[in-house]
Design goal:
Blueprint: E1 7-11, H1 21-25, E2 31-34, E3 37-40, E4 60-64
Antiparallel strand pairs: 1-4, 2-3
Amino acid sequence: MARIPDHEFEVDDDRCFGCAACVAFCPINALELKDRLAVVNESKCTHCNHCIPLCPVHALSIIRVVS
């Protein structure tokens, strides 16, 4: 799957509580937990959206980056 141009993966640190559902499900291992927060390796992330609906607190999104 191709990345979405001018977009990046975002984790809302105020919502994420470190359940690791997204980390366990990411098909390319672009997510990891650091200090009980999900952190994305943006260069690995394909923006496939598989992890986003798994987050029980809606802390994950792909946002447009305005240059």
